[in-house]
Design a protein that fits this description.
Elements (H helix, E strand, L loop, with lengths): L4 E9 L2 E6 L2 E6 L12 E5 L2 E6 L1 H30 L9
Antiparallel strand pairs: 1-2, 1-4, 2-3, 4-5
Length: 94
């Protein structure tokens, strides 16, 4: 499965930008998007390329949903680990 993630541009030089997502920073290419994208903008990043400019509101909403999904998945993993250590089979492991 592929996932494109909203990312905040924190620096830009020519067609290369450094983006931040949840504190992780990565250099990406801006070759596929228009020239009006700059520092402070949010872009949708897939496979190292910005593929679309996003509004701040849309980006923050999506990032919040991804954060919540991650927390739910971590809780499920922790519960499965506890169940396994207690000798109980989980639905996924049964």
């Amino acid at each position: 499965m592929c996932l494109a993630v909203p990312s905040l541009i924190i620096s830009k030089k020519d067609q290369i930008a450094t983006v931040d997502v949840f504190g992780a920073r990565k250099d990406i290419s801006l070759a596929l998007v228009s020239d009006d994208i700059g520092v402070g903008d949010y872009v949708l990043v897939h496979a190292g390329f910005a593929i679309q400019k996003l509004s701040r509101e849309e980006s923050l909403d999506t990032l919040q949903l991804l954060k919540e999904l991650t927390e739910v998945m971590q809780d499920a993993d922790n519960k499965a680990a506890r169940d396994m250590s207690n000798g109980r089979a989980t639905e996924a492991g049964a």
